[in-house]
Each structure stands twice: as C-alpha cells, then as structure tokens.
Amino acid sequence: MGGTSIWHWIVVGLIVVLLFGRGKISDMMGDVAKGIKAFKKGMSEDDTPAKPVQPSEPVRTLDHQAGAPTSTATTDHKVG
Q1: How many angstroms separate the CA atoms of 41 and 48, rounded?
Q2: Residue 71 pLDDT > 80, yes or no?
Q3: What is the CA radius of gyration of the chain?
Q4: Which of 23, 25, 28, 72 is the most exposed place for a label (fewest CB within 10 A)?
C-alpha cells in the first residue's frame, strides 16, 4: 500500500489521455511552448539598456531657506 509502481503511472496516463484526448494534450503542449518562447523574448528585451529620458524642462523643487518663517501663528506657553 502507498507504493507507486509502473502500473500505477500507466493507469494514470491512460485516464489522462481518456479525459483530455490526444489532441487536447498536444494543443496544451503547443501553448506551453508558445508561452516559453514569449517569456524568453520578453527576457531578452529586458536585457537591452533603456535610453535615458531627457526632461523637457528642468525639475522644480521648493527651496527651504534658513531664516524664512515656517508658520505665521506663534504660541506662547507659560508653565507654572
């Protein structure tokens, strides 16, 4: 019990062929091959270096200057 023999795999193979048929299995293998080819093509396209994008206008940033007021409201707290 629990052991797998060659007869076990033959029976499983026959059931798979009966359920899916030989045509469907070959179609599935063709689809798998197409997927592998598309994957390899996509991987080879990723290997080519991307061209750096030049911005049309310079990037604008906020200048935080020392001494500039950070807020208009001031609060005084007395402790005691």
Answers
A1: 12
A2: no
A3: 34
A4: 72
Domain tally for the chain?
1
* 13-29 b/e (C-beta count within 10 Å ≥ 16 → b): eeeeeeeeeeeeeeeee
In a domain, 34, yes or no: yes
Q: Look up tokens 């048929």; give the residue.
A: 21
Separation CA 46–CA 72 (nearest Å): 52
pLDDT tens profile 16-42? 888 877 777 778 888 889 999 999 988
- In this model, does residue 13 exceed pLDDT 60? yes
- Give CA 56 to chain center in angstroms: 30
